[in-house]
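Extended Data, panel c. Modelled sequence:
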Amino acid sequence: MRISIAADHGGFALKQQIVPFLKELGHTVLDRGTNSESSVDYPDYAIFVVRDIVSGEAERGIVMCGTGLGISMAANRHKGVRAALVQSGEYAKLSREHNDANVLAMGGRFTSLDSAKEFITIFLETPFEGDRHVRRIKKIDTTEI
């Protein structure tokens, strides 16, 4: 699977540990930065992953900032992106089964490497259930104010 990944300075350390893990699992990784712990703005990095998802360059994305909140909000502003801030394996599973999430968001300051590996594995392996959830996703993708 082609996976796009990006983080701001708050998620940089975790991203650096996740990239080799993804490669060990046999995935192609599009590392979109950041490449240091120097302060950067998370929306600037969310957009790299968003572009990869929307264009079809990547099948799934992973984004991280300090809490995962800001970068997930930035990613979710774009049609066709369903970013899920995950804090447990159950969240990762349900984000895929019920919401067909295509971007996993995590907090770099609040997620251990072992937890991140668990969430990622579940997120990448869990299929979308479809059925009644399809109409809800269509509403997410088409409802505007």
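The domain at 2-142 is CATH 3.40.1400.10 (Ribose 5-phosphate Isomerase B; Chain: A,). This feature is highlighted in the accompanying rendering.
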